[in-house]
Amino acid sequence: MEDAEKKEVRITWPADSGPAIFSNNATIQFDSGGIAYLTFFQAIPPVLMGTSEDQFKKLQELETIEAKPIIKIAMTATQLKGLFKLLQKHADIFNDSTRE
User: Fold this and answer.
1) Going by C-beta distance under 8 Å and a sequence separation of 6 or more, which residues neighbour residue 39?
2) In a domain, 7, yes or no
3) Would 87 be classed as within a structural domain?
């Protein structure tokens, strides 16, 4: 049996890819099959109202802030390495542009 011909298909991304959702917390977990799970969260502190003393008291009583999951993304180790390279490349470009 002959190998089927390989065909490359381009991927295009729409100009408007949807809303941007803020995330200030993230985790990475791995399963036994080598799949990485990236979970992004929002951890937003409560609004503190009242006098400075009231706000300080409420802050002292605060023990936890719930992180609400926004999205969980699953990818292979190879895809995760590619993502890390892409993030590092763009972090370097951003850092170089902000030094000027």
Assistant:
1) 26, 27, 28, 29, 69, 71, 72, 73
2) no
3) yes
* Coil vs helix vs strand at 71: strand
Residue 17 forms part of a structural domain: no
- Residue labelled with tokens 């993304």: 73
Q: How much is the pTM?
A: 0.71
Q: Could you tell me the residue range of the domain that residue 84 belongs to?
A: 25-98
Of the candidates 78, 83, 39, 46, the residue with the CA atom closest to the CA atom of residue 61:
46
Q: Is residue 37 part of a domain?
A: yes
How many domains, the chain? 1
- pLDDT tens, residue by residue, 20-54: 899 999 999 999 999 999 999 999 999 999 999 99
Report pLDDT digits (tens) over 8-19: 999 998 888 788
- At residue 29's C-alpha, the angle toward residues 74 and 22, to 5°, is 70
